[in-house]
């Protein structure tokens, strides 16, 4: 049996995790010097409330090598093969800790693949792996395909405010001030495992989102048509539904799924962030 596991950045829905027997390793959130586990004892609403009250941004942290070892050994105990794919190695030390745990365990049944992605971009790859398992591919074949597919993964977001990125040290005070003053909404895109600012929109958040979606579908038009995620930190459910319906009405994807970003992603992007995410075919 091949088992799939990931970390709590995966940002796909609970039923998708359960249906595909995907096991999630929760990452750490540090709030006022107290450690919480993402998706276990803290959620995004609590994070947003904390920031609003204190003006302080929570910190995210990778778990220890020993935590990874314990997690992997539990999955390996019955002789199953295990594939782990979490947040990009260029965005977190979690991948390095997982790799070190793999070396120390020294079990040929444990395989680790760099997603070069985050959020539902990881989720798309994990669901792709689950599909390959059902097709009867070997663990080695699946890992090879995942490595190739990680280069063909359209993961991007539009951020409403730079406040969280500024507090997290990811943009300057001047950039934050100018963006907020001019109502600039940056487009953040995963490029070779790193977050890059690949565009910007001017106006209110809700008014620029459809333009952003059209841009992504035009630029990255070699899409796999099986599934697309609209992943967000928005409180306005009607707005999110309108965005999902907008994408559905294009009749490109067989499934368009709404997904709420977890605590780890929310710590860095803040409220009112929304992205469209889907896998790509080779051109």
Q: Which term fits the overall shape?
A: globular
Rg calculated over all Cα atoms: 19 Å
Our measurement of the CA-to-CA distance between the termini, rounded to an integer number of angstroms, reads: 33 Å
What is the total domain count?
2
Query: What percent of residues adopt helix (DSSP H or I)?
Result: 40-55%
Structural class: alpha/beta
Instruction: Indicate the proportion of strand residues.
Output: 25-35%
Number of strands: 13
Strand order in the sheet with the most strands? 10-9-8-13-11-12
Overall pLDDT, averaged? Answer: 90
Uncertain segments: 166-179
**Biggest β-sheet strands, sense, barrel:** 6 strands, mixed
CATH architecture of the largest domain: 2-Layer Sandwich
Overall CATH class of the largest domain: Alpha Beta
The number of helices is 11
Find the CATH topology of the largest domain.
Hypothetical Protein Tm841, Chain: A,domain 3
Order of helices and strands: EHEEEHEHEHEHHEHHEEHEHEHE
Verbal overview:
The chain is α/β, with parallel strands linked by helices and 283 residues long. The protein folds into 2 domains: 2-27 and 62-149, Rossmann fold (3-Layer(aba) Sandwich), CATH 3.40.50.10170; 153-280, Hypothetical Protein Tm841, Chain: A,domain 3, CATH 3.30.1180.10. Helix content is 41%, strand content 27%. The protein is built from 11 helices and 13 strands. The protein has helices at 14-19, 44-54, 65-76, 94-105, 120-134, 139-149, 163-167, 173-182, 205-219, 237-248, 263-269, and strands at residues 2-7, 22-25, 28-31, 34-37, 59-61, 81-84, 110-112, 153-159, 184-191, 194-202, 223-232, 255-260, 273-280. The strands form 3 sheets. The protein has a 6-stranded mixed β-sheet, sandwiched between helices. Strands 2-1-6-7 form a 4-stranded parallel β-sheet, with helices on both faces. A 3-stranded antiparallel β-sheet has the order 4-3-5, covered by helices on one side. α10 (237-248) links the parallel β11 and β12. α3 (65-76) crosses α4 (94-105), α5 (120-134) runs antiparallel to α6 (139-149) and α9 packs parallel to α10. The longest helix has 15 residues, at 120-134. The chain is globular, with a radius of gyration of 19 Å. The relative contact order is 0.16. Mean pLDDT is 90; it is low at 166-179.
């Amino acid at each position: 049996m091949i088992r799939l596991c990931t970390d709590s950045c995966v940002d796909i829905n609970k039923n998708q995790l359960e249906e595909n027997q995907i096991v999630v390793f929760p990452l750490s959130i540090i709030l006022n010097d107290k450690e919480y586990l993402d998706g276990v004892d803290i959620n995004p609403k609590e994070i947003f409330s904390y920031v609003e009250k204190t003006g302080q941004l929570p910190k995210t942290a990778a778990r220890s090598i020993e935590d990874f070892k314990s997690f992997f050994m539990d999955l390996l105990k019955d002789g199953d093969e295990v594939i782990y794919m979490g947040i990009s190695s260029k965005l977190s030390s979690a991948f390095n800790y997982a790799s070190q745990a793999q070396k120390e365990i020294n079990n040929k049944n444990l395989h680790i693949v760099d997603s070069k992605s985050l959020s539902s971009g990881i989720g798309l790859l994990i669901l792709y792996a689950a599909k390959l398992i059902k097709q009867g591919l070997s663990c080695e074949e699946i890992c090879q395909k995942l490595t190739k597919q990680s280069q063909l993964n359209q993961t991007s977001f539009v951020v409403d405010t730079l406040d969280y990125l500024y507090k997290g040290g990811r943009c300057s005070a001047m950039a934050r001030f100018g963006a907020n003053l001019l109502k600039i909404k940056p487009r953040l895109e995963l490029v070779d495992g790193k977050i890059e600012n690949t565009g910007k929109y001017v106006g209110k958040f809700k008014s620029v989102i459809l333009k952003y979606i059209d841009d992504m579908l035009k630029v990255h038009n070699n899409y796999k048509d099986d599934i697309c995620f609209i992943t967000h930190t928005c409180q306005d459910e009607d707005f999110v539904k309108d965005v999902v319906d907008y994408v559905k009405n294009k009749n490109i994807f067989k499934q368009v799924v709404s997904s709420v970003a977890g605590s780890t992603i929310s710590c860095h992007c803040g409220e009112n962030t929304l992205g469209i995410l889907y896998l790509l075919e080779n051109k």
